[in-house]
Amino acid sequence: MLGAIGLDERQESAYRALVALGAAEVTDLAHRLALPELDTERALRRLESQGLAAQSSARTGRWVAAPPGVALGALLTQQRHELEQAELAAALLAEEYRAEAAEAAVHDLVEVVTGASAVTHRFLQLQLGAQEEVCALVTGKPIAVSGMENDAEEQAAGRGVRYRVVLEREVLTLPTGLLELSAALGREERVRVADRVPTKLVVADRSLAMVPLTGRGAEPAAIVVHASGLLESLMGLFESVWRDALPLRLGAGAQITEEEAPGPDVMDLEILSLLLAGMTDASVAKQLDLGLRTVQRRVKGLMELTGVTTRLQLGWHAYEKGWVARG
Question: Who's near 127: CB < 8 A, 6+ residues apart?
Fold first, then answer.
């Protein structure tokens, strides 16, 4: 618990024991901690350098604990100050990076990472650096890191980063597939399943993406894509796969079930048909005896459901899905 202020396990145990006793000889403390006297004395010297313990002036070889409220408070204040300085330095570096990236050369927009260790490190780093959302397409053939090894996912989700993940159905047949999925759903991640996903992909905060560069059998390699038109295309690919995938949920008895694909209800279809026939929102509302805002809210909901930004795209999507008939 006190590792944050620079103490290891032995040093923390020594300080806790010294606090409990008030003062103690090295021999007694070593016996209490089940440590060699030399290791115990080293721990006490470290505590002395941190202002957490001191040798008694009244008795040689006797050590006294510094009051936790004072000693630990001072260390925590120093730690906060150092953290604030580090945050300031990080903010300045980020600002400098953004200024450079504003006029980045084309070759700076794509970073090639080679080797299993480097790919794994960059993959975990990308998630740990996310602030808002991580989107991922997961295949049944990991490139360099499996779901069970992805500690960064749990850490990021634990601090509030949202996850949207589409699994290839093959993942569910892997030995650890259901266990990984249960853990993800338990962290309230949004997970969907598709028969196939086009590629393995992870996107952090819509500003950084990573995709594999090599197939099976070759040395693991990946490309990291920074903000660019290519990144927007990769994000569009994810959204397309996400829309067509089936949501998964954790039911009673920890059973994982697939939900029905979301779609419009009868009223939505009537509104779509009338709009595609050329009627205005106000005319549709009057025809169906609805409020104008109700019509507009339902149209907005359909646009969000299909992931489109214009009504023209919504009409095309409705025809493609067979929600309305041509002619």
Answer: 134, 150, 152, 153, 155, 156, 161, 202, 204
